[in-house]
Amino acid sequence: PLLPVHNSIFAAMPITKQYLRYAATGCFGVLCSKKCNVLVTEGRENRRHELNAIAPALENVIIWNLRKEEKVCTLEGDKHEVTSLALSSDEDMVATGYSNGVVRIWSLVSASCNTTLSGHKSAVTCLVFDHAVVRLVSGGRDNDVIVWDVVNECGQCKLSGHKAPITDCVVMTTGNVLITSSKDTTVKLWDLDTHHCFQTLVECHSEVWSIALVARESRLVVGSSDRELRVWAMEPIDTEQEVGGAISRAITGQKRALLTVGHDDAMTHDAWLSG
């Protein structure tokens, strides 16, 4: 015989199966995170030069003694991850960029934060000090480049022109010129006196990831994702003149940021290296 079933039994039974949700509460033992570069500096300890590594560890920055293989100190940040690092020429300060667009300047002597700068709308992708350590340049994922005044702890100007995230930036020691690269396949040269772009290199056909000045700033090396290195000659030109059939626009003063250009790739580059 069938037994009567009460409705209260079905009401107590769950309609869908419940799953436990797991969420990360913390982490430990992080030596270096992968979304940022690593710096090497020659620190001083008990009147002895020590080789130190400055490495990002999620929201913190850890300074390691490479000889003793131990941690020197930790520069503690907030909940946002470190995305870029830059060391000053005197190796007394380090700048850190974060995923929320904030830039901080730390003293390596006291291991404390001296300045906090806010200006980017998204993650900071590259940082560089000028040679005199009076300015700091930051590039972001928001396609903007910001020049900061380190002494007055404020922004000097915002340089807009790239159409994709900034990948690298270099400040020339001779002449007040800034060079930036971007994922939009271009390299731009900026006059920091007038805050405008006076030349754009469009010869790269893929994302530009790195730029460097070599041979006493007489050569500009550009690395892109097509596995090729392009090298330009940096030649000072004081007036407008025609080089290889193309016009190079000069700027006043001692700027050394004019590039030899031409009609084809063979005339444009001093060297063409393929990997």
Describe the structure in your own words.
This protein has helices at 7-12, 265-268, and strands at residues 39-45, 48-57, 60-65, 70-75, 82-87, 93-98, 102-107, 112-118, 124-129, 135-140, 144-149, 154-160, 166-171, 177-182, 187-191, 196-201, 208-214, 219-224, 228-235, 241-243, 246-248, 258-259, 271-274. The chain has 275 residues and is mainly beta. It starts with 6 loop residues before the first helix and ends with a strand.
Lay out the secondary structure:
Layout: H1 7-12, E1 39-45, E2 48-57, E3 60-65, E4 70-75, E5 82-87, E6 93-98, E7 102-107, E8 112-118, E9 124-129, E10 135-140, E11 144-149, E12 154-160, E13 166-171, E14 177-182, E15 187-191, E16 196-201, E17 208-214, E18 219-224, E19 228-235, E20 241-243, E21 246-248, E22 258-259, H2 265-268, E23 271-274
Antiparallel strand pairs: 1-2, 2-3, 3-4, 5-6, 6-7, 7-8, 9-10, 10-11, 11-12, 13-14, 14-15, 15-16, 17-18, 18-19, 19-22, 19-23, 20-21
